[in-house]
Amino acid sequence: MEVQYRSQFPVCSFRLTFAVCVCVRACARAQVCAGAECWSVHSNHTSQPSVCGHDDDAFKYCAYTITYMLLFPIAILSNTGALVVFFWKCWHRSSAFSVVMMNLALSDACFSLTLPLRLAYYFNRGIWYFPDWLCRACVYGFYLNLYTSIFFLTVLSMLRWVAVMQPLRPQVEPVRMARVCVGVWLFVGVASVPFLLNGVTQR
Predict the structure, then answer these.
(1) Is the pTM of this model over 0.90?
(2) For 54-197, CATH number?
(3) C-alpha dihedral sign at 176, 177, 178, 181
(4) Helix or strand or coil: residue 167?
(5) Where are the domains positioned within the chain?
(6) At what angle do helices 56-92 and 115-123 cross, to 10 degrees?
(7) What is the pLDDT of residues 33-91, one digit of tens each?
């Protein structure tokens, strides 16, 4: 019996942020000392190293600002499109896989809504001008997206393993998978509450 399954991936993943930052940082380090003398020769013909440093904070603010400016419109459009597609699939032909993918896209879409706040924070060079509760909500949304994505990807891996290794086994019902997703949201939401209790102490 030939098992045919189609692998699908989330339309947008914020894990590209790390790769972009690494590439930008590598280019910045390669040009740190360009056009400057890093060694000075004294009258006794001995070479001693001179100061040749660069500001890590300045790079961080610049790199994060550019990264979030590029990711925000892509994230909003991609995750909105993913939600529409998976909602349509769940409405016409529901499956456990579609339910999990819709929740994964919802998790990423919620995180993408906090990107403008992070963009403003890094654009202002680490100064938070918004209310304290908004800062807590931004941090809470970050960890909510982080851990729900981990759980949903784990569930997807388990579904694929069952489909390949046990093809004759009945598929998981969408209603049961929806209950699992609700349990993931509740568990991660409650476990991340401490991030709402710690506000900013210094602006």
Answers:
(1) no
(2) 1.20.1070.10
(3) positive
(4) coil
(5) 54-197
(6) 170
(7) 333 333 333 434 444 444 444 556 778 888 888 988 898 889 889 888 888 888 887 77
